[in-house]
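Changelog excerpt

This revision adds worked examples to the README so contributors can see how folded entries look when concatenated. The first example is reproduced verbatim below.
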Amino acid sequence: MTPERRERLLSVLNKRQAGLTVVLENVQDPHNISAVMRTCDAVGIQEIYVLNNKIPRHKKWGAKSSSSAAKWLTIHQFSEVDECITALRQKYDKIFTTHLAADSVGLYDIDFTGSVALVFGNEHGGVSEEIRAQADGNFIIPQVGIIQSLNISVACAVSIYEALRQRTLAGHYNQKNLPDEQFNSLLNQWGFIGEEEQEF
């Protein structure tokens, strides 16, 4: 590994956020998943959770232009809701789902400076009732148009960029956020990704 490449990898790892993640529940279109992965990488999310308990497990992550992001992320796949929720509770203090309900809060009212997992649901049915029952609350993205929904990858991007904004103001990107063991393991793992596959 060249010194320049090592410096670049260290720069990216120093901005990875341990207290922020995205959960995709039964998202069908692999292109949507790929787009979410690319945005997660862009804002410094390292770990994402993919729950497929009503659709087949994904074997690949969509178009080549987006799927390259998967190499740089830690992807946890689950086929059981309880197993996924248990894993989330071990690492994150709050779980919020995208769902329009009487008690839903606005995206901008969520405190993203803490430890937060955001759940995005199936393109047609949204987040399941089973997940919502175990979450800490629901949130909505403010919209003033006629069509009151966004594509899942767009909804995710809007949401986690608000998280980036808040966490930037709080100084979370100015210091190493990942635990030492995970940081060093990723640095070693990324070092073996071929030069020809690099996105930088």
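The second example, added in the same revision:
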Amino acid sequence: MIGRKLGPKIFSRKKSRLFNPENVERTHAFFEKHGPKAIIIARFLPVFRAFVPAAAGVGKMSYRHFVTYNAIGALLWGVGVTLLGFFLGQIPFVRDYSEVFIIVLVLIPGVPILIELWRAFRSWRAKRVTAAE
């Protein structure tokens, strides 16, 4: 609701680095194509869990679809993480090195995101260098 109500007002301002009306259109297109997956997967990614709901509102995802996929994601996350912890905790090696496994399990979902951010940065940098020449 926050994204749906405040998003258009914020992004209708004069174009700036952060508030660009093109971002609203890109967000809308993203949620048209990947909305359900994004809502469910965001549950498993700590930082994105906070931003995806607002982005779904900005992208004009229907509230009914958002609530449905958010509930599915919450159920999968809650039950899945609990069962995963229970079953992995039965393995002596995992139990003895649980801190390492927790760190790895938290970091693995972020790897594709970091790769995409790195690609975007390299693309932005290449455009900037080309423009300077």
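Reviewer comment on example two: The chain has a mean pLDDT of 80. Residues 94-133 form one domain.
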